[in-house]
Amino acid sequence: MITDIHTHHVPKGWPDLGWPGAPRLRIDSEREAMILVGDKEFRRVQDDCWDPEARARTMGVDRQVVSPTPVFFAYDRPAGEAVRAARVFNDLSLEICADERFIPFCQVPLQDPDLACEELDRCLANGHRGVEIGNHVGDRDLDDEGVVQFLQHCADRNAPVFVHPWDLPSGPRVDRWMAQWLVGMPAETHLSILAMILGGVFDRVPESLRICFAHGGGSFAFWLGRFENAWHRRNDVIGTSEHPPSHYLDRFSVDSVVFDERALRLLVDTMGEDRVMLGSDFPYPLGETPVGAVVREAAFLSDEARARILGGNAAIFLGEHRES
Q: Where is the Amidohydrolase-related domain (predicted)?
């Protein structure tokens, strides 16, 4: 069962979210639409974002984990507005994911941990299998007490967590060349893994928490050696975790969407073959096409390792099988 754990949806329409400049959709044709944030065009999308049949024709795998598109998180809005947005998109996602090939993950108002826990519980009761969260809430990273409270709740509810970078820094140096996506996303994801480790989150949340970071964990695998060196040599500055960074590699997973066999080899060598899962970022243009090509063609992978990455690890992440 080949499972893509990193895909997104956009409903074909939704009610007014209730604040000026809230995201909306301009329908340009039967198959195409434009996400607008205020009056600014954010992203062109096609019917494979909302139409299960269109998704099925091009997804290239047996099933997908389908998560929200992060622009709809509304973490920068008052919590009540973020709850409304979450409920709207979560309920619409169940319509998109009525086909058993599509596994819905919800969103929550992460800026308010109590409301986030309530919305997660509502969604799990309605059929969602897990939750996607952004990698920060303003200046609060994943070691924020409220976020940790929510992650502990996810562990208690046996709900897998998918972490996606969002709300990237803007400015003259990163607003050209798609640098927000090419540099900002890997850096943001790396920073969030550091926050989980150095902020002591993995020392505080149960080992049962299943959490995965998008985009191959960003630049984390490449710079683990630098991170490890700093922990040992400047422990007076960054030694806030109980153990060195390498101790926590079995506490989280990453997806495989790194686009290059050499990068995938480093990822598997660093994380282990049981901590990498197939991901594509479907259906967006910067996603991997065809889905899973690098994993399928990687000469260094054994058949067993390839099977784990293509589906076996996802089954464990989703709570369908136990780790061996």
A: 4-318
